[in-house]
Amino acid sequence: MSAKKYHNIAMIVAAGSSERFAGNIPKQYMSLGQMSVLRFVVEKFLNHNEIDAVVVGINQHHEKMYNEEVAGLSLLPHFIGGDVRQKTVLNGLRSIAKYSPKNILIHDAARVLTTPKTISKTIAKMRDYKACIVASKINDTIKYSKDGKIIERTVSRDGLFSAETPQMFDFQTILSLHEKYSGDNLTDDAALCEKEGMDVAIVESDSINTKLTHARDLGLIKKLLEEYEN
Predict the structure, then answer these.
(1) How many whole angstroms separate alpha carbon 155 and alpha carbon 29?
(2) Residue 66 to residues 56, 88, 118: CA-CA distances in angstroms?
(3) Residue 155: in which H helix or E strand, if any?
(4) Among candidates 86, 63, 43, which has minimal Cα distance to 77?
């Protein structure tokens, strides 16, 4: 019996060890009130009517926590991440190849504030492109320092964007690129397409899409979620 096929699968990358996050609990399992960060993000994609399935990549040491946090949710079998993000995503792409999805949407569990509208805009962009990313224009003045101590110059912010997630790709294209460039340790998936000279479309974020990186970020994200709900 052949495996069921899907058009759009969302992959939630949650395999990090949270080295920059204070506390004994990895940031993706911290509480946002009613549920953990991970469950909140997973449910957001599960409840989107254009996402056919969700798969999560986790740290091998977090399986017990993961199973507790996603209990009752209808997810594809989780996969174990690698020691760097690029290995994690490749593991995930290989794990879902049997489902033959048309597109794969890749999202970091730490980006809690992504909205359904942004997800919809990202999916819509795939009608015309094989790769697209959510990004925000850089509005701050950018300074360059080689040693992190002394400013060497001001960098023009014209045309600069801050890359975020979700990022979405034609599945076979991004799988082949991850296989081709495995070991390069790039920090986002769109960089693989750029290496090939592919067009990567920009989807401007429609909200503050800050990443949960440090412990202090959790309080800010909670306040922003309260504002959205009210």
Answers:
(1) 37
(2) 9, 16, 26
(3) strand 153-155
(4) 63
Give the start-to-end residue ranges of the domains of the chain.
8-229
For domain 8-229, give the fold. Answer: Spore Coat Polysaccharide Biosynthesis Protein SpsA; Chain A (3.90.550)
C-beta neighbour count of 186 within 10 angstroms:
16
Q: Which tokens go with 124?
A: 């819509």
Taking a C-beta distance cutoff of 8 angstroms, is the pair 94, 48 a contact?
Answer: no
Burial class (CB in 10 A: 0-12, 13-18, 19+), 41: buried
d(CA 225, CA 23): 22
**C-alpha distance from residue 205 to each of 62, 134, 146, 222 (Å):** 31, 6, 30, 19
**Three-state SS letters, 56-119:** EEECHHHHHHHHHHCCCCCCCCCEECCCCHHHHHHHHHHHHHHHCCCEEEEEECCCCCCCHHHH
Nearest to 173 by CA among 205, 157, 196: 196
pLDDT in tens, 169-219: 999 999 999 999 998 988 899 999 999 999 999 999 887 787 887 777 788
Please give the Cα distance from 139 to 150 (Å, whole number). Answer: 22
Q: Give the tens place of pLDDT for each residue, 93-132.
A: 999 999 999 999 999 999 999 999 999 999 999 999 999 9
